[in-house]
Write a structure and sequence with these properties.
single chain; alpha/beta; Rossmann fold; 2 domains; four-stranded parallel β-sheet; 12 helices; about 45% helix; binds adenosine-5'-diphosphate
């Protein structure tokens, strides 16, 4: 029997489904007669001892809510090993014998540091970008995808009515999963992601000109990470497109920019996020109860697996070629 408490915190960017993971952790602890405490505001809360008994909370009321009831924070001091040691001491003072950290890659580095400093810690992948390499799925991605699809469909309705063209910037810094899947799902005319070089003339201007006989409204999806690698903001890409298509083809595009921003992060978690988060949360507790720490829980071929945190952090994944090819077919034809 696990005779210490299990602590849970959320860290980094929030994602819908984090609350489902918290609820599953609380219930799995209760099922196994283990105490459970919540830590507010990520690693900052752990350092400050902002810790409370969560096992008497009615977690059924949180599972249909986006965000995280524990709050999230970025705590740069946590990169200092002295502060990691301090956090382990604080945890011990609160009777915590194992931690669960729900977050992204950065949060997992902190989780690994905690484990190595003597507090067994498990990471649960949660980010709407789906950019954690060791898992085929991250909590929050499906909800964000559905939100973005809904927004782009709505933007498309008005573009269609006025013969306008929309340039829509979606989240996704290192990884363009959201952009590519939304482009396919919404029938975009071009999609730009940080992972692939692009040429405005070939990938946007010539495609629009080719389709111009059939339709007069267009949609271009741009992942936010594109600016970092190309040095061009979505607005600049839009302006260059408008200029170039006029010069080369004499087409005057009426183009509008929409940056979706934080709307993509919020909202009720979908079925997929509720189930994935519940499975991962429950599995994290089982690992700690079995005396196992320094692992990250993941999904592989739909099954729950776990990896050493460092091993997980060193894995690489990229958008499947088949998806990229499909987005090319959908956009260009
Ligand atoms: P995410 O977890 O979503 O990738 P961040 O990269 O912002 O988000 O990391 C979240 C938090 O994890 C940071 O604010 C910090 O407290 C902790 N963290 C990030 N990188 C490290 C690191 N190298 N060592 C220890 N803790 C880290």
């Amino acid at each position: 029997m696990f005779n210490k408490k299990i602590g849970v915190l959320t860290s980094g960017g929030d994602a819908p489904g984090m609350n489902n993971a918290i609820a599953a952790i609380v219930k799995t602890c209760k099922y196994n007669n283990a105490g459970v405490v919540g830590v507010n505001y990520g690693y900052r809360g752990l350092l400050n001892g902002d810790i409370f008994d969560i096992d008497n909370m009615n977690t059924d009321d949180i599972i249909n809510r986006g965000g995280t009831i524990l709050g999230s924070a970025r705590c740069l001091e946590f990169k200092d090993p002295e502060n990691v040691k301090k956090a382990v001491e604080v945890a011990k003072q609160h009777g915590i014998g194992g931690m669960i950290v729900i977050g992204g890659d950065g949060s997992f580095r902190g989780a690994r540091d905690l484990s190595l400093a003597g507090l067994p810690t498990i990471g649960i992948p949660a980010t709407i970008d789906n950019d954690i390499s060791c898992t085929e799925y991250t909590i929050g991605y499906d909800t964000a995808l559905n939100t973005v699809i809904d927004c782009v469909d709505k933007i498309n309705d008005t573009m269609r009515s006025h013969n306008r063209s929309a340039f829509v910037e979606v989240m996704g810094n290192k990884a363009g999963y959201l952009a590519v899947e939304v482009a396919i799902a919404c029938g975009a005319d071009a999609v730009l992601v940080a992972e692939q070089n692009f040429d405005i003339e070939k990938n946007i201007v010539d495609v629009i000109a080719r389709k111009y006989e059939e339709k007069k409204h267009f949609i271009v999806i741009v992942a936010e990470g594109v600016e970092k690698v190309s040095g061009k903001s979505t607005k600049k890409i839009m302006n260059e497109t408008v200029e170039m298509i006029d010069k080369k083809y004499g087409i005057q595009l009426d183009a509008k920019l929409t940056v979706l921003g934080h709307i993509q992060r919020g909202g009720k978690p979908t079925y997929k996020d509720r189930i994935a988060a519940s499975r991962m949360g429950s599995d994290a507790v089982k690992l700690l109860i079995n005396g196992i720490g320094n692992r990250v829980v993941a999904l592989k071929h739909g099954k729950i697996v776990d990896y050493d945190i460092l091993e997980g952090l060193e894995m690489k994944k990229s958008i499947e070629d088949e998806l990229l090819m499909l987005s090319k077919i959908i956009c260009e034809k």
